[in-house]
Amino acid sequence: MRETVLMKGETATLVIVTANGQTEVLDGEDEVIESHKDDRHEAILARYLAQGWEIEEDGP
Q1: At a CB cut-off of 8 Å and minimum separation 6, what does 48 contact?
Q2: What is the domain range of residue 38?
Q3: If 0-12 CB within 10 Å is exposed, 13-18 middle and 19+ buried, where does residue 44 land?
Q4: What is the domain count for the chain?
Q5: CA–CA distance, 19 with 15 (Å, rounded to integer)
Q6: Are 2 and 60 in contact (CB under 8 A)?
Q7: pLDDT at residue 58, rounded to an integer
Q8: Which among 2, 7, 51, 56 has the fewest CB atoms less than 10 Å away?
């Protein structure tokens, strides 16, 4: 499992979680805002970083 926490500003949070070959993006209230049946962690992370999000935590 890989989990990356992204921050934008003081309060905006997103979490990218990849487990069992599937990737989901959760908002700050743990609601699923994006779901994929394959591992798209790197592509999704790159997209959000390009939008100005910053990595708060990244790891297994």
Answers
A1: 6, 14, 16
A2: 2-55
A3: buried
A4: 1
A5: 13
A6: yes
A7: 94
A8: 51
Between residues 45 and 10, the one the model is more confident about: 45
Condensed to tens digits (0 to 9), the pLDDT of residues 4-44 reads 999 999 889 999 999 999 999 999 999 999 999 999 999 99
* Residue 60 in domain: no
- Please report whether residue 10 resides in a domain: yes
Helix (H) or strand (E) holding 45: helix 41-50
Q: Is residue 25 part of a domain?
A: yes
Residue with tokens 């990244």: 58
> How many other β-carbons are positioned within 10 Å of the β-carbon of residue 50?
8
Helix (DSSP H) and strand (DSSP E) numbers for the chain: 1, 5
Write the single-letter amino acid at 32: V
Record the pTM. Answer: 0.93
- Say which residue the tokens 């003081």 belong to: 10
